[in-house]
Write a structure and sequence with these properties.
With 320 residues, the protein is an alpha+beta fold. The protein is built from 13 helices and four strands. The protein folds into three domains: 85 residues, no CATH class; 118 residues, no CATH class; 78 residues, no CATH class. A hairpin with a 2-residue loop joins strand 3 and strand 4. Helix 9 packs across helix 12. The termini are far apart.
């Protein structure tokens, strides 16, 4: 029987029901290792269903059921209907929230994703479509979802240059954008039918919120590892950004990039003194901190390691 305009639409949960969030995650390629997500006993209604089934067994009345209803404005509510009454379930199950938090912490990790760069990348997608009239083949969503050697920065040149803003994002930004894309598609099935501009705008907002969730998870882990509980404790590590410092040391010592070029890559403005001396003191100090960490990790053998890598790279270049 056709549904009258303005009336709610009911969805039964049976063999053809949509997957729960926990079940859906099992089919996603997030490079998850181990069984910790699969052990999360969840699904949007599983805990409620268990409670209802227990009630049915005790009193022998008709089975309790759970139904979803989508209102005209698109909002979905879940109704628990059992012999004792009907309950409108407006809160997410704890297992779903736990799974969402675990996935956010695992996928985003402690990578410093630059939300501004993600906004810029998606804005350029809109620019190419609306102002340049560029046809994306394959669709930009497919490239966003892949980030493999199939869609490399080298590939995104020439006739594929309109993909460059996506493939040139850093690893952390790519992982965050991929997670946002996957989650939005699960929670908002209608997302794929939205215009491209609306998809990009929503993804930008989703990335910002996911990033805001990942930060306190990392702060909690840091407190549990090195915190003291003192009031006003900042929990700053001795090195402000060890990952960046190590990367700067790698770029300079292994790849031979000058400090000035690294400063341009990191958007670090040189001081007036640096310009006169043609130097980049701030970047040099980063490299020194990173070099010390690498040297400690290799028991004092970083210089020998770096020299060996440079020789091997030179040999490879000569052979080519």
């Amino acid at each position: 029987m056709p549904r009258e305009p303005g009336q709610p639409e009911f969805h039964h949960r049976g063999e053809m029901e949509e997957p729960t969030f926990s079940e859906w995650m099992e089919d996603q390629d997030f490079s998850l290792q181990g069984d910790f997500l699969w052990d999360l006993e969840g699904g949007l209604s599983r805990n409620w269903r268990k409670r209802l089934e227990a009630d049915d067994w005790e009193i022998g009345w008709p089975e309790g059921i759970i139904r979803s209803v989508r209102l005209p404005d698109g909002l979905r509510l879940w109704l628990a209907i059992d012999p004792y009454g009907i309950e409108v379930l407006t809160k997410y199950s704890r297992s779903d929230l736990a799974a969402l938090g675990a996935l956010t912490g695992y996928q985003v990790g402690d990578g410093e994703a630059d939300i501004k760069e993600i906004r810029w990348a998606l804005d350029w997608v809109v620019h190419w479509m609306e102002e340049s009239g560029e046809r994306f083949d394959p669709p930009w969503q497919e490239v966003l979802q892949d980030y493999s050697s199939n869609f490399s920065p080298k590939w995104a040149t020439g006739e594929n240059v309109h993909y460059a803003s996506l493939v040139n994002l850093t690893y952390a930004e790519q992982k965050l954008l991929q997670l946002a894309f996957a989650l939005v598609r699960y929670y908002r099935p209608e997302f794929e039918g939205w215009p491209d501009k609306k998809q990009c705008e929503f993804l930008k907002a989703a990335c910002e919120r996911i990033n805001n969730v990942a930060k306190p998870i990392n702060q909690l882990a840091r407190f549990l590892e090195v915190g003291t509980g003192a009031r006003g404790e900042k929990l700053r590590l001795p090195i402000e950004d060890a990952e960046r410092d190590v990367k700067v040391a790698e770029w300079h010592d292994l790849r031979g990039l000058p400090y000035q070029d690294i400063g341009l890559m990191l958007r670090i403005e040189p001081t007036k003194g640096d310009e006169i001396k043609r130097e980049q003191q701030r970047v040099r100090k980063m490299a020194e901190r990173g070099r010390k960490l690498l040297n400690d990790a290799l028991d004092g053998g970083w210089d020998d390691y770096a020299a060996r890598v440079r020789r091997l790279r030179q040999q490879t270049a000569n052979e080519e």
